[in-house]
Amino acid sequence: MATERTLSIIKPDATRRNLTGKINAKFEDAGLRIVAQKRIQLTKAQAGEFYKVHAERPFYDELCEFMASAPVVVQVLEGEGAIAKNREVMGATNPADAAEGTVRADFAESVGENSVHGSDAPDTAADEISFFFSGLELVG
Ligand code: CMP
Fold first, then answer.
1. Distance from the alpha carbon of residue 60 to the mean position of ligand 1, in angstroms
2. Which domain of life is it from (predicted)?
3. Is 3-41+72-137 CATH 3.30.70.141?
């Protein structure tokens, strides 16, 4: 399997509860390398732009409000099959369905406030990484 990069976001519910290190440990234990990382405060408009594919969903406004409600940690994770591996480590979107030991099973508060985001495919990973990081920030 090829080495890939994927975009990960540690969301406001998790940064508020000081869980960044515990979540990063799960990524690293699974063999994912954090090759870029920064803690930022999104505006609601920036969150809306990032999540624009969900603009027609009923939860879109709530999602954008939430993502702008506290700092987030945006990161690039690298590894063999990193996109699928990260989704495995995160667990299902709804924590009620997330497998034991996953980030969402251990930390998520609800389907909306679910602690982490991860890219779902190679094309979205490339777009999402370039949304937050310049090439100069990706040092490997
Ligand atoms: P994420 O993987 O970041 O992608 C889109 C996000 O929308 C998702 O995680 C959830 O945080 C949010 N989301 C998905 N379904 C719902 C829902 N039914 N209610 C509120 N938020 C949701």
1. 8
2. Bacteria
3. yes
